[in-house]
Amino acid sequence: MFDRIQAFLQTLTSRSDTREFAPDDPRVAFVALCFQVMEADGHVSESEQKRFRDLLRERYDLTEDRLKALIAVGRDAGSQAVDYYRFTSDLRRHLVNEEDRVELLGSLWDLVYADGKRNEIEDHVIWRIADLLGVSSRERVLQRQQAAARIGSGDTAEAEA
């Protein structure tokens, strides 16, 4: 009996942790887009997961419990989405400055390269997100090249429109 009461109380506590992130919270939108990018190639590697958590720690000063709650809410939002528009529109409302949107795109490229390679599907996902965020093709390519250079990939000189 005591175990059931304790489990019930833990359920209530975990629900309140995830409710602190509103559906239109830009952090939720960012996490959802991160999942879209990481899952694009059909495999989420350990290096991608590690880079993802590091990125969130760098961007947001959250306790470990709040970080886990944010990841859970973002993952859930991403799995329910049919496109990227909801998340990019939330981000555009909060990131009015183009440099911030470009920097966010660079973070997504870091996730692509976390496993040391990129593929066409990841390119397409980033292209769609960049387009919806209002980031130019030139800036998208520059961010990709910079991400590739950060990991030492030979992918920096490749031409892309």
UniProtKB/TrEMBL annotation:
Residues 28-144 form the Co-chaperone DjlA N-terminal domain. It comes from the Bacteria. InterPro entries: DjlA_N, TerB-like. It holds the Pfam family TerB. This is TerB family tellurite resistance protein. It comes from Neorhizobium turbinariae.
